[in-house]
Amino acid sequence: MKHPATRMLFSYWDALRGERAAPERGEIEPGEIRHILADTFVLELDAQREARFRLAGTRICGLMGRELRDGRLVDLWPERARHDMRKNLDIVVDETAGIVCGLVGATNEGDTVDLELLILPLRHRGRPNARALGCLSAQAVPDWIGYHTLCALTTVSMRVIWPAGRPLDVVAPALDATERRRRFVVHDGGRM
Length: 192
Known about the structure:
CATH topology: Beta-Lactamase
Shape: globular
Number of helices: 4
Helix content: 10-25%
Order of helices and strands: HEEHHEEEEH
CATH class: Alpha Beta
CATH architecture: 2-Layer Sandwich
Strand content: 25-35%
Structural class: alpha+beta
Radius of gyration: 20 Å
Largest sheet: 6 strands, antiparallel
């Protein structure tokens, strides 16, 4: 996580959840994250795994040039990229894990901005994967915000944030000293 808003939101969420996979939606106190509310959103995840904005911060809406409430998250991407974003959301739902994505937003005028997207799972009234908390933030607020709006987002990187304490799927066996030496290989190389 590169952006201060992303790191702040993750730290807050991580402290709330404690040993659980995700905190309850009702535990979120907006005053505790007031410095990043403009970059923060809450998603509602329905039975068809459609993620719709319940709340979206003013800076996010300013970047997009419209109110995002009740809009679908995937609609921020061009049609050809929506399938990949749906797969990323499936990780949040199925694995109760967070995701962080590096994005590039572009305007019709040719301006671009580097963004970071964080989506973290929330429980809602005991139901897992009913809500998600996230933020969409720019390292620096572009000077054209309010004059131009983003027309397309492109995902350039994605990383899963696994819950702490989750066992690894594959555990490498410990190797004794003889086995480590046997596997050590030196390849001939040139000198400069």
